[in-house]
Amino acid sequence: MEQLQALVLRAEAELAQLRSELQRQADEYQALLNVRDKLQAEIATYRQLLEGGEEFSLQDALEKETTSTTTQRSTQRLLDGKVVTETKEVKVRTY
């Protein structure tokens, strides 16, 4: 029975670690999407300028700038004095 309990605890720890890793990857992916969107907006602005579009000022650029913060979280769990999962919180700010 103890062996089965140990197996279950190990499997639960592994599952928690996998969930944490998936969440981290999802957060990184979202951060990359945010960067891509920002770059696409900048490219569109430069194209407009190159094509002789409307007057463009620094104030226009500042108004279009957006800031977002992404928080990445994971959890830590101890089993028999050993770390099986870990909790971290990292805030990433994108412009």
UniProtKB/TrEMBL annotation:
Has UniProt tagged this entry with the keyword Lipid metabolism?
no
Coiled-coil region list: 1-49
GO CC terms: keratin filament
A molecular function (GO) term = structural molecule activity
The protein's matches in Gene3D superfamilies, at most eight in alphabetical order, are given as: 1.20.5.170
Q: Which InterPro entries match?
A: IF_conserved, IF_rod_dom, Keratin_I
List, for all copies, the residue spans of the domain called IF rod: 1-57
Q: Establish whether keyword Phosphoprotein is in the entry.
A: yes
Q: Which GO terms describe its biological process?
A: intermediate filament cytoskeleton organization
What PROSITE patterns does the record point to? IF_ROD_1, IF_ROD_2
Pfam families named in the record: Filament
Q: Which UniProt keywords apply?
A: Coiled coil, Intermediate filament, Keratin, Phosphoprotein
Q: Name the family.
A: Belongs to the intermediate filament family.
According to UniProt, the name of this protein is IF rod domain-containing protein
What is the organism field in this record?
Patagioenas fasciata monilis
